[in-house]
């Protein structure tokens, strides 16, 4: 499977709590739900539909999985929600046990085995392993060169701080832009892939 990252991101690189005020207030983050003024069903929604349609499975960090597991099962009957609920899901966690995995089709990946398990998953299947949110996990995957595609929905807003997906260990990662679309609200949906030369 290809490892595909799909993220809402501000102009200053923040991905924290795009969905709602109480989603993630770590560090005093006070801008939860910041994407709502810029969301449109055609360009931004279409990018998510496309990513989910190509996904063979979903991969989450623990916090993002818990937020998604608390939201999507109750939306059954909506085609997007039904797809989310039916896909295989993997959650990287050091704290959740198997009994905590109430969202259907979820498999626990112990935190200390995450990178090895992702390498194994890359060799399985032909679709995409889609990662949404999960900034700590995404940083590790990018840093290890395990990302095959990066889909960023860049919102025209500066948040002034918050969680990011980008590694900060001083290594350069070169990407190529393979597609872009712009919404009427100024959101740039950009798809990048690592260059042949890698990092």
Summarize the structure.
23% of the residues lie in helices and 27% in strands. It contains five helices and eight strands, in the order βαβααββαβαβββ.
How would you characterize this protein structure?
A hairpin with a 5-residue loop joins strand 7 and strand 8 (188-194). The protein has five helices and eight strands. The chain has helices at 44-54, 62-69, 79-86, 114-122, 135-143, and strands at 2-10, 55-61, 88-93, 106-110, 128-132, 149-155, 175-182, 188-194. The chain is globular. The two termini are 21 Å apart. It has an eight-stranded mixed beta sheet.
Supply the key terms.
about 200 residues, eight-stranded mixed sheet, about 25% helix, single chain, alpha/beta
Layout of helices and strands:
Elements: E1 2-10, H1 44-54, E2 55-61, H2 62-69, H3 79-86, E3 88-93, E4 106-110, H4 114-122, E5 128-132, H5 135-143, E6 149-155, E7 175-182, E8 188-194
Parallel strand pairs: 1-5, 1-6, 2-3, 2-5, 3-4
Antiparallel strand pairs: 6-8, 7-8
Strand content: 25-35%
Q: In which range does the helix fraction lie?
A: 10-25%
User: Which whole number gives the mean pLDDT?
Assistant: 94
Low-confidence stretches: none
Largest sheet: 8 strands, mixed
Which structural class do the helices and strands define?
Answer: alpha/beta
**Strand runs, count:** 8
Shape: globular
**Secondary-structure element sequence?**
EHEHHEEHEHEEE
By DSSP (H or I, 4+ residues per run), the number of helices equals 5
N- to C-terminal distance: 21 Å
Give the C-alpha Rg: 16 Å
Query: Widest sheet: strand order?
Result: 4-3-2-5-1-6-8-7
């Amino acid at each position: 499977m290809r490892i595909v990252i799909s993220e809402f991101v501000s102009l200053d690189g923040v991905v924290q709590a795009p969905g709602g005020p109480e989603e993630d207030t770590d560090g005093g983050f006070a801008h939860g739900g910041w994407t709502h003024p810029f969301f449109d069903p055609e360009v931004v929604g279409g990018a998510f539909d496309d990513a989910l349609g190509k996904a063979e499975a979903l991969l989450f960090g623990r916090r993002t999985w818990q937020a998604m597991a608390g939201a999507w099962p109750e939306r059954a009957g909506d085609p997007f929600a039904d797809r989310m609920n039916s896909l295989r899901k993997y959650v990287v966690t050091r704290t959740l046990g198997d009994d905590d995995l109430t969202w259907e089709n979820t498999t626990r990946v112990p935190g200390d085995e995450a990178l090895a398990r992702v390498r194994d998953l890359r060799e399985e299947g032909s679709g995409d392993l889609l990662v949404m949110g999960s900034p700590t996990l995404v940083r590790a995957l990018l840093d290890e060169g395990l990302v095959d595609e990066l889909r960023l929905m860049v919102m025209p807003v500066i948040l002034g701080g918050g969680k990011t997906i980008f590694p900060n260990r001083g290594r350069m990662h070169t990407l190529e832009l393979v597609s872009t679309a712009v919404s009427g609200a100024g959101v740039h949906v950009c798809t990048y892939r690592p260059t042949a030369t890698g990092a």
